[in-house]
Amino acid sequence: MTGRTGGADGGADVLPGSRSALDPGRAIKPGRHGLSPEAVAGIQRERLIDAFVEVVSERGCPQTTISGVAGAAGVTKKTFYEHFDGLDACFLAAYRRGMDILHRRMWDAYEAAPSWPDGVHAALRTMLALLTREPRFARAALIEANAAGPDVRLARLDDLARFRAFFTAPGLPRVPDAVADAVVGGVVSAVRVRIETDDSPDLRSLLPSLTYFAVLPLLGREAAAPYLAGER
Q: Where is the sequence biased in composition, kind Gly residues (predicted)?
């Protein structure tokens, strides 16, 4: 389970793109502002990460430029290059930050549940609620990441692997990695389709069907049916 992440401007546990990079509260006053160089760099980096998610979610990956991200962050291109060597590096930082937070919150919900299927249900409920609340990150991570560079694509494969942990529990039959990956991939695909086909999706409506889909291979139709019917 990953630890808390965050930056010098108080961004711990907040998904990238959820805050405006140009919020006055995040501005660095000119002159004697009393901040150390490290603090200034941290604030700039966090603003660039938020700005990147804002721009890529609105314009799409092919139309996202360093100038556009720097402008949305209120910094110069020179400042951008002080933190990232290119757009893919910025995308990777945003993706990893957000997925670490998402995974940790899902895992917390999973561990607090009384049983394995209830844990899966709680984890999915947490994921869908968070992505509904933060549509910029949802689009960046699930849609635009398809057009990102190889480092982001490898990070997505790493995430697929760590979500296998939701299919291990005492008394649960061992699940082959290929089965766990297929279930996780199916869940992600369903969420992605909803985002792409609905301008303002409420992803929480997917919870019954996704829980049913996730627990069906291990528990069978009878045990999974109450989740599909919304009885749990």
A: 1-10
